[in-house]
Amino acid sequence: MPASVGCIPDSHLLFGGDEWWFYGPRVFAADTIYNERIPYDYVVKDTAFAGPTCFQRGDNHYSNQRGEMIAKQRSTAIRYRAAAGGESVNQEEAEEPVWSEEELAALEERKFAWIRMLHDLGHSERWWDDVSVGDLLPERVFGPHSVASFTT
User: Fold this and answer.
1) Would the pLDDT of 70 be above 80?
2) What residues contact residue 95 under an 8 Å CB cut-off, 6+ apart?
3) Rounded CA gap, 55 and 45, in Å?
4) Which of its termini does the chain have fewer beta carbons within 10 Å around, N or C?
């Protein structure tokens, strides 16, 4: 869990990513792992998307029962006014696409190529030495999406 503190009323929070540092002690089955959450810093920047936006970083320090530092995780949280994000969206650029029967059939063929590859592999791994430079591999296609499928 990020070491974020404070509350910004009516704000949205986006996860901005993690950085990790590992310090070397091995973790064994009988170890007890402790986590200390420490806010690190924050900065407020004016963004084109949502106006004033807070970028907050927090650290998680993981140690074992002997007090040995195992890892440090630094997480970034991005907070902005919920209403501001919608204000910057141009609704005219957000048109729902209309798919032709030919376009949908082409997408289905690309999806099926991925499924054929999985069956050909027997649902096993593809190892690095099974692929050569220049090999054409099928892509995994997602979509077209509805609002419901995209948000989940």
Assistant:
1) yes
2) none
3) 8
4) C
